[in-house]
Amino acid sequence: MNEADGAGVAGVGRVLVVVPTYNEADNVTVIVDRIRRSVPAVEVLVVDDDSPDGTGALADRMARADGRVHVLHRAGKQGLGAAYVAGFGWAADRGYDAVVEMDADGSHAPEELPRLLEAARDADVVIGSRWTAGGRVVNWPRRRQLLSRGGNLYTRVALGMPLSDATGGFRVYRVPALRRLDLESVASQGYSFQVELSWRAHRAGLRTVEVPITFAERERGASKMSPVIIGEALWRVTLWSVFDRRPASGRGGGRDQRSRWP
Ligand SMILES: Nc1nc2c(ncn2[C@@H]2O[C@H](COP(=O)(O)OP(=O)(O)OP(=O)(O)O)[C@@H](O)[C@H]2O)c(=O)[nH]1
Ligand SMILES: [Mg+2]
């Protein structure tokens, strides 16, 4: 599958991989190269928030050398959520059929993208999942694992949403499905953005599929994780659980490898 023939990825169409970057000069070239090599049919959009370390200029250089690489420059650090919303809008305006979310730091392996795209043939949303059967994390300190598992458990219980990894950021969205999620009104900035989109997809009745991935700790550069980002996810999930939750009846799936619901 996935071979470039001008029409994009078989069964999915034109795919744009959106890579948000903030101070990823040590990673951006490597990750874009790996994406292009792993699935030559996709295009890549680096969304850079004017990184002081020159990430944007490195991305520009790649874009000049490869017509399938693009760069969206934003004025300053405005958070992961805002970067993705801008990237998704860029894709929708240009007629792409699907967008992929992927971190620049190597935690999400481009070599696993073909499996996610294959699942997208038959889904609106595909989530690369660390915590479903077959999923793995490599080199993550125990406290990060506990935080991720605990956050996902809380999300699952509070929202009644049958996902193993609602905070994961390696995903595929079909663009027509994304249009139903009213992205302009998304306020989440950090991890909460991933949960919010899962929650909106769930409430909109989209078909979500989880596929197992191997997630690796970043090797270079600094994490942007902070107590503020964790806190944001916590209070937003709590608010949604109080004000937004709908009855859990009639959903299929479970927490296993490919849970899905109507
Ligand atoms: N454009 C943009 N990208 C961001 C921003 N914050 C984080 N990113 C990027 O989003 C991706 C995920 O951020 P990370 O720092 O890896 O955060 P994380 O994966 O939650 O934390 P670690 O697991 O510790 O690496 C990376 O590619 C970052 O460069 C932001 O404000 N703007
Ligand atoms: Mg990371």
Summarize the structure.
With 262 residues, the protein is α/β, with parallel strands linked by helices. Helices cover 36% and strands 16% of the residues.
Textual characterization of the structure:
The chain is α/β, with parallel strands linked by helices and 262 residues long. It has one domain (15-243): Spore Coat Polysaccharide Biosynthesis Protein SpsA, Chain A (Alpha-Beta Complex), CATH 3.90.550.10. It has helices at residues 28-38, 55-65, 80-93, 113-120, 142-159, 175-178, 192-203, 227-243; strands spanning 15-21, 43-48, 69-73, 98-101, 125-129, 136-138, 171-174, 208-212, 214-216. Helix 1 (28-38) links the parallel strand 1 (15-21) and strand 2 (43-48). Helix 5 runs parallel beside helix 8. The longest helix is centred in the middle third of the chain and has 18 residues, at 142-159. The radius of gyration is 17 Å and the shape is globular. The protein starts with 14 loop residues before the first strand and ends in a 19-residue tail after the last helix. Bound molecules: guanosine-5'-triphosphate and magnesium ion.
